[in-house]
């Protein structure tokens, strides 16, 4: 009886503890379900965002390191990578793998036929061009012929002719000598300064050094754009005076480029000295690797696709326009 009586007195406590435990378990279950719903919602949002930006993109110049970096960035961004690319004759008739996508490389003689097929299968395709300077104008004429919107990341070529070709064809494009968003922001600041303070560096002597990988054949388009701003500010300089450094030993010993980035870097130095040599300014921007340009190129392609879809009145843009849009990834 004592045992039964004692057990009976413990029953309310046991029941209370069981209720408390049950409440705790139920609460935990509710929390876990809520977390699961949140995770699902986030996943759906990400998928929706990916679909929102998803469109076919053709990267010309995938045989080069820059073109390959842009193709990889396109896949990472959830864009549909068109499985063809243009290149020179000596690099054509081969297949490249970007992620799990096989890219067939075509030579110059096949460009028109291939692009015609691409536009039929992918009517809303956007092209990103990272080929070579001497192909800029011919490629632009081809894109314009087929009314394909394009991002021209390749520097060099006849830039005046490039703009005229695009204007005459009324095709959407982003044309910029620099695709790195942060460097573009610096360029924008330089243009603002040149516009608001013309002559601020009147009489100053300008010296410019630019170092890029040995495979870059032309003078830096970024350097030219910055120099143009300094000239508006009054600095004395001739474009032929740009010091181009392509020798790896000089790049390591004189410029300070890390050895592991000799194959992909962009170092720029602009020195300004007053007429009496008492005042000195130095502007410098150094980039190692290609990710900054690849990501910027994809942002430009997404930007351009939106302009096409919205039937924007303006047709020719640059990276400053992309920056001003303010919705980069």
Short description:
It is found in: Plastid, Chloroplast. The protein has 329 residues and is an alpha/beta fold. The protein has helices at residues 2-53, 65-76, 111-121, 136-145, 159-169, 181-196, 221-232, 248-255, 291-309, 319-325, and strands spanning 56-60, 80-81, 84-86, 94-98, 101-106, 126-129, 150-152, 173-175, 205-212, 243-245, 265-273, 280-288, 316-317.
Would you mind describing this structure in some detail?
The chain is an alpha/beta fold and 329 residues long. The protein has two domains: 158 residues, NAD(P)-binding Rossmann-like Domain (Rossmann fold), CATH 3.40.50; 109 residues, Dihydrodipicolinate Reductase, domain 2. Helices cover 48% and strands 19% of the residues. It is built from ten helices and 13 strands. The strands form three sheets. The chain has a six-stranded parallel β-sheet, with helices on both faces. α2 packs across α9, α4 runs parallel beside α5 and α6 packs parallel to α7. The longest helix has 52 residues. The chain is globular, with a radius of gyration of 29 Å. The N and C termini lie far apart (76 Å).
